[in-house]
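We treat protein structure as text, and this decision shapes the records that our systems exchange. This encoding replaces a full spatial description with a residue-level series of whole-number codes. Below, we set out a record of this kind in full and without editing:
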Amino acid sequence: MEKKIFLKESEIPRQWYNIQADLPTPLPPPLNPATGEPITPDMLAPIFPMNLIEQEVSGERFIDIPEEVLDRLLIWRPTPLCRAYSLERFLGTPARIYFKNEGVSPPGSHKPNTAIPQAYYNKVFGIKRLTTETGAGQWGSALAFACHQFGLELKIYMVRVSYNQKPYRRVMMEVWGGRCIPSPSMDTNAGRRFLDENPEHPGSLGIAISEAIEDAVTSKNTKYSLGSVLNHVMLHQTIIGLEAQKQLASIGEYPDVVIGCVGGGSNFAGIAFPFIRDKINGKDIKIIASEPTSCPTLTKGPYVYDFGDTAETTPLLPMHSIGHGFVPAPIHAGGLRYHGMAPLVSRLLLDGLIEARAYSQLETFAAGITFARTEGFIPAPETDHAIACVIDEAKKAKEEGREKVILMNWSGHGVIDLASYDAYMAGRLENFELPDEDIARLIKDLEKFPKPV
């Protein structure tokens, strides 16, 4: 019985998979909020380099990975596919549970799968400096690592509550040469406005995005980089699922269930999109996105046009959203606190190709500790949401007396998030479910915009 299934370095996928080529229903276009008209690629040029904009709008099914990008990805890829034998025995389930261990990357998460290509494409476009936001710090540390690989400067606006909760994430960013500050900050007009309203503002990903975009468009030789939500980010992450398909095929397995946690959508897309292509082509497979009850974008958010940031500087995106004015409860799954969902993930939910579930904070931490005590690895709080869903599916297999193959994206380790586990074990964490009336209030202003179809 093999515990770990490896690919040779020569077997690393050499193309990304672009699900836009296979969508049953094409994505509605982003809109100019002032005119309500679809934006054109050139309108994104102040924010992103044109080579990434071309990927954002591409309908090509497979896109070649540049050799310079592959060279950096090989620092840690291909990642191992692991069989969770101990968790299976603990649960007494007939299910076979596999997890793709994305925690083996230098920053400890799946995020450098897109950070490396984004840094590369900006570098070859002539950009000298990037700005970005980060929630839990996984994206900020991944982009700092990637920018150092290609000699780019980086400034990171980190959601203030996470900046205070996770100081060692900031240290990681600074080790790789990034500059990290808490958001809202005094460095931008947007940040100063939110601090004027509340000097102790906890921040949000929407605010941090506003600050990073403002910095990018007002600074020389600078572009903005986003770690989730956008199409090109989803594209880069598909290397996870493409590797998993090869690994499972090598041992004669295929999943009945694929599970990933979801905040903006990147790690879920990475594991799920190659298998969703199979589902579109007739495979019988269940694909589940697991999110927090405190930020229930897919399970409660309506499908609307909304801004990607709080200061309303982005185009309107067609997505499930709980409103760009959302300020999250200070849960520890900082990477799952974004108000909107990736347009591609949102579209797949509408088309019935995926399903979504929401889990409470205490339930997810309990699942994470179960995983750590059986499989040894301590998961990131975000990953715990996927584990909670895996445990549910494994128990269901036991009740049904059915063998199933369950595949999960283990999207990051929790070694730098130990303070959150300490708070959980000390009884200092509480559950929080975002009330329906709060969502109704947050999305009310969106009624003036067209409805995506």
